[in-house]
Amino acid sequence: MQSYGTWPSPFHPADIVSSAPRIDGARFVGDEVWWGESVPTEGGRVTVRSSSGAVVLPAPWSARSRVHEYGGGAWTADDEGTLFFVDAQDQRVYRMLAGGEPEALTAPGPNHGGLRVQHGRLLAVREDLSIEPHLRALVEIPVDGSAASDAAGIRVFVQGSAFFAHPALSPDGTRIAWVQWSGRRMPWQESQLCIVAVGGDEFAATRARAALQPEWVSDSELVYADDPSGRWNLYRRRIKGLEASAPEPVAPADADTGYGLWVLGNRWYQPLPDGRIVAVRTNGSDEIVVIDTDGTSRRLDVPATAHVSVDDVSDSRVLLSGGGAAVNAGLWCVDVDSGEVTRIRGGAPTDSQWMPPATQLTIDGSRGPVHAFEYAPANPQASAPDEELPPYIIFVHGGPTAHVSGAASAAIAFYTSRGIGVLDVNYGGSTGYGRDYRERLESQWGVVDVDDVLAAARGLADSGRADPARIAIRGGSAGGWTVLSALVRGGVFAAGISRYGVSDLRMLAQDTHDFEKYYLDGLVGPLPEAEQLYIDRSPLTHADKINVPVLLLQGEDDRVVPPSQSEAIRDALAERGVPHEYVMYPGEGHGFRRAETAIDALERELTFLGRVFGFEPGASSGSDAES
User: Fold this and answer.
1) Which residue of 129, 194, 296, 621 sits 20 to 30 Å from the alpha carbon of 288, by its own alpha carbon?
2) Which residues pair with residue 224 across a beta bridge?
């Protein structure tokens, strides 16, 4: 018998960093499959690889966009094998022919992202932060390099201070459709579906609630996702010129085909050439369905069940990337007719003895049901005394408009294999459960999210599954805000881990970037009218109420939540003598991408929990925990 937390484990931080690839889009290119992949051991650069085994984009090049700060859609390719990508360093778009060197297609200056090749034309979202107000546009970039030194050669379809995403060119090349929002409302709150005539100034904005991902299925039909019913479902509109008919629902379901539009590269569905549609449906976790032309649908038997992206289609084949309940994150090619599933990258089955599937829970909270996924301690080589209850760590996702889906994760098994349980909470405000659940956080950030994580922790303790004296909480970004806010409430958590977390709302409102400039208006209230709420809700205001140890981890180059946020709460804790540790990681931004950072952060977290909970973390057992 060994106490919880001291179990020997085969999961090392270095192994976890390389255990599952971070896929960044995929495409069919001739007879090959290409995909983007982050390489933590190379500073987190994003390369492009091929199913032939080739590295398409060699070091030191890195395909990464900074449009809207969160980027996305930083690479694409045509059918002949020409790669187009946004370089992480200068944000210019480059073309790379097979066997050649990258050649610039755009001039220095603006950021680019959301790249898409359609009908031989390269479309992109462009963002210029050098002028005020900042200017964004949907553009077509000449692929012959004629605009590499003169931006006048780039065709601009639409531009302004609004935000743009998901450009889609009609098959006849005469019209562009896209999604647009003002910035005063986030895209999951309110966004428009727009169409413009190529070569003309006239454009039409159709009535929509929170439109996502328009796709032309013919010159006269457009499909897109929207949530007028409270769930993101697919809709069809007949298009004549720029005029759109009333929306027609396509196989409506009590699930979401869509997600918060944080990055530009996500794809939640793809039309097949024969008129069928392959789509993700999310209700907590994901399922993949094929929607027939008569509106009926059937579920595909695939291992991907978490944050699935439908990246590309070719005839009856589809590329799916994401995670799964019983597999590592990966990329699969699926034939929707035969059902054949081919694993392209990652996606290895996990050993259920070491990484049992998550248990989906619904907990009664003071403001309604709280959804979560539980991972109990699991180790086939160790057990704890019968009378001992395990410590737990509550995971809080960022966003706050994001969600977790119960995917297998070596990062979670890192804790559970050592005898530390994990509860991953989708607090009110999370996506994946419909608009009503998402809008529980309207004007209530720092209230509803905190109520829900406290209810989740108490539910674990009251059920006898967790030691009530040894429950910690961990989160990053908006999740770090919830961590600090929950510690201010006190009485439940014995420790907190905040990764690049928000501590002061007024500071955040002053320092944050364009994309989230008005996000706080909806989450808390507009300034200056709501200034007192900003003060009252901020953990920094009530730092004197935090009386448990805190670990603060921060990236030096973070532009979304600058280091000043973590440093302010650090200084307040130091002034009162509260045990804490502050770690600044040079070269890291919002989210840790480098292998050495991820390794150090996990090691520090485990050491921190052991110190707080009174155990010496177990050493490696030398076992192979994955098949």
Assistant:
1) 194
2) 235
Beta strands in 184-296, from DSSP E residues, in sequence order: 192-197, 203-206, 212-218, 221-226, 233-240, 243-244, 248-250, 269-271, 277-283, 285-291
Residue 627: predicted pLDDT? 39
By DSSP bridging, strand 111-118 and strand 121-128 are: antiparallel
Residue 623 has pLDDT above 50, yes or no: no
Per-residue pLDDT tens for 338-369?
A: 999 999 999 999 998 998 889 999 999 998 99
Q: Please state, in angstroms and rounded to a whole number, the distance separating the CA atoms of residues 555 and 71.
A: 18
- Residue 121 identity: R
Q: Read off the amino acid at residue 612.
A: V
CA-to-CA separations, 88 to 489, 587, 620, in angstroms, rounded:
41, 13, 37
Q: pLDDT of 478-531, one tens digit each?
A: 999 999 999 999 999 999 999 999 999 999 998 888 899 899 999 999 999 999
What gap in Å lies between CA 450 and CA 433, rounded to an integer?
18
Tokens linked to 230 = 């409270």
pLDDT at residue 360, rounded to an integer: 93
Helix, strand, or coil (residue 109): coil
* 3-state SS, residue 533: helix
Query: Is the pLDDT reported for residue 431 higher than 50?
Result: yes
Q: How far apart are CA 307 and CA 542, in angstroms?
A: 36
φ, ψ of residue 599 to 5 degrees: the values are: -65, -50
d(CA 605, CA 369): 30
Q: State yes or no: pLDDT of 315 exceeds 60.
A: yes
Stretch 362-379: mean pLDDT, rounded?
95
Three-state DSSP at 229 gives coil
What is the residue whose two structure tokens read 């039409």?
204
Q: Which residue spans within 87-191 are E strands per DSSP?
A: 93-96, 103-104, 111-118, 121-128, 135-141, 155-160, 163-169, 175-181
User: What is the distance between the terminal CA atoms of the chain, rounded to a whole angstrom?
Assistant: 26
Beta strands at 306-314 and 163-169: parallel, antiparallel or unpaired: unpaired
What does the alpha-carbon distance between residue 375 and residue 167 come to, in Å, rounded to a whole number? 40
Cβ neighbours around 8 below 10 Å, total: 18
Q: How far apart are CA 153 and CA 261, in angstroms?
A: 30
* Cα 204 from chain centroid (whole Å): 30
pLDDT score for 620 = 60
Residue 21 has pLDDT above 90, yes or no: no
The number of beta carbons lying within 10 Å of the beta carbon of residue 166 is: 28
Q: Is the dihedral of CA 315, 271, 263, 74 positive or negative?
A: positive
Whether 408 contacts 325, CB under 8 Å: yes
In 490-594, which residue ranges form alpha helices assigned H by DSSP? Answer: 505-511, 519-523, 531-537, 563-576
Give the strands of the sheet with 45-50, arranged side by side. Answer: 22-29, 32-39, 45-50
